[in-house]
Amino acid sequence: MSDLEIQLLESQFPAVSGQAFAAARERVLASGQSVLQTEGAFVYRVFPDGHKEVIKQIEPPIRVKSGTVYLIK
């Protein structure tokens, strides 16, 4: 596999993974189970009928620029 082919696959990963997670979420809700999701500074349990229950408050998300490199020590 060439470097160009690898770069093409890597560029498609965010969209494809987003679609996979959305499809999995829908399958879980369709089976009658709840899912956890975050919105802003909260974790919610979302039920198949659409109502939400607050589970926990968390730190608000931090926006990062694509391609930013963080060093973890």
How is this structure best summarized?
The chain has 73 residues and is an alpha+beta fold. The chain contains one helix and three strands, in the order αβββ.
Question: What does the model show?
Answer:
- With 73 residues, this protein is an alpha+beta fold.
- The protein has one domain.
- It has 1 helix and 3 strands, in the order H-E-E-E.
- The chain has a 3-stranded antiparallel beta sheet.
- A hairpin with a 5-residue loop joins strand 2 and strand 3 (52-57).
- The chain is flat.
- The mean pLDDT is 92.
Approximately how much beta-strand content do the residues carry?
Answer: 15-25%
> Looking at the structure, what is the overall shape?
flat
Helical content band? 25-40%
Distance between the termini: 33 Å
- Tally of alpha and pi helices: 1
Low-confidence stretches: none
Order of helices and strands: HEEE
Could you tell me the mean pLDDT? 92
Side by side, the strands of the main sheet go 1-2-3
Structural class: alpha+beta
How many distinct folded domains?
1
Strand elements, count? 3
Nearest-angstrom radius of gyration? 17 Å
Please describe the biggest sheet, giving its number of strands, its sense, and whether it closes into a barrel: 3 strands, antiparallel
